[in-house]
Design a protein that fits this description.
mainly alpha, 108 residues
């Protein structure tokens, strides 16, 4: 697939594909392109989920539950392509990093 078409798809993945499985099955896409599209769609869905949790208006009228199901489908599609899920690379979250308590140093 040519670069311009691919970059257009990246701007709104859900506009070009009805389901994550359509991306997996698309013979015109390379594996890296498929993963990039799935990752972008996952990121977009996480933004919607975070916005709905914070009672922000959702312009595409998706319910939070539908977004969560879509995220699960996206993660499954990525796993089907052999990608490991990295929670640190996932989309935005409302919680920060885990608190790691450092041992206190005592004076000598």
């Amino acid at each position: 697939m040519d670069k311009k078409t691919f970059e257009t798809m990246l701007t709104d993945v859900a506009k070009h594909f009805a389901t994550p499985q359509e991306i997996v099955m698309d013979q015109a896409l390379t594996r890296p392109q498929k993963l990039k599209l799935l990752e972008q769609w996952d990121y977009d869905m996480q933004l919607l989920l975070t916005a709905s949790e914070e009672n922000m208006p959702n312009t595409n009228r998706s319910e939070g539950g539908q977004v969560a199901v879509c995220i699960a489908d996206l993660r499954k599609a990525m796993a089907d392509l052999g990608a490991a899920h990295d929670p640190e690379a996932a989309g935005p979250g409302k919680v920060g990093a885990a608190v790691v308590e450092k041992p206190r140093q005592t004076g000598t």
